[in-house]
Amino acid sequence: MKKLKVKCFFDGACDPNPDGAMGFGVYIESNIEMSGGCKLSNGEAAKKGNTNNIAEYKAVLGLLNWLRHDPFKQDCEYFICGDSRLVVMQLRQDWKVKSNPQLRSLRDECLEIIEKLKSRGNEFYVAWIPREQNKLADELSKQGMQNFIVTEPQYSKL
Questions:
Q1: Cα Rg for the chain, rounded, in angstroms?
Q2: Please, which residues have CB within 8 angstroms of residue 83's CB and are 6 or more apart in sequence?
Q3: Span 35-72, pLDDT tens digits
Q4: Distance between CA atoms of 11 and 44, rounded to whole angstroms?
Q5: Alpha helix positions (H), the chain
Q6: 39, 47, 75, 153 — which has fewest CB within 10 A?
């Protein structure tokens, strides 16, 4: 039986970087009819330690968690694409996660979910793509961040 091909694009954003609000965007398309594909967008409030790289990993994690409960379930070829060279190379384990324990934890969680999905007969491929080919996921990540950007001045007592 021919495997279903599912192409997944991810992107994350943090504004300001570091310590800003984060947004996560995912766009999923397949070779079966999915009118307009599946679009996921979410975000988190600003806090110390937030970075673009963490946002990128959280986008991948959101994607993988959706795939765990997706309508396809098994016998799929998942092609995961993102414009973060760091995340792609670390997921492929071509690059080590050197000094950031939060990135290491997020990467390990992603790989754990991938292994579970592979045990259902799914295959995974990951690739870096240029930013120009990732525009929809980029827009979704910025949308996800909008609800968490503080627009009012933050006053501090002197």
A1: 16
A2: 11, 128, 129, 130, 131, 133, 134, 138
A3: 557 888 999 999 999 999 999 999 999 999 998 886 66
A4: 14
A5: 52-68, 85-91, 101-118, 135-146
A6: 153
Neighbours of 99 (CB within 10 A): 7
Q: Largest alpha-carbon pair distance within the chain?
A: 69
**Cα distances (angstroms) measured from residue 158 to each of 140, 155:** 39, 9
Residue 117: name the closest of 71, 64, 79 by CA: 64
* C-alpha atoms less than 13 angstroms from C-alpha of 98 in its C-beta half-sphere: 2
- Cα separation, 71 vs 96, in Å, equals 33
For the record, the structure tokens of 148 come out as: 């968490």
Residue-averaged pLDDT of the chain: 90
Measured between alpha carbons, how far is 57 from 1 in angstroms, rounded to an integer?
Answer: 33
Identity of residue 136:
L
Distance CA 89, CA 128 (A): 8
Closest Cα partner for 147 from 31, 29, 23?
Answer: 23
Confirm if 5 and 37 have CB atoms less than 8 A apart: no
The stretches in the chain having pLDDT less than 70 are 1, 32-36, 70-73, 150-156
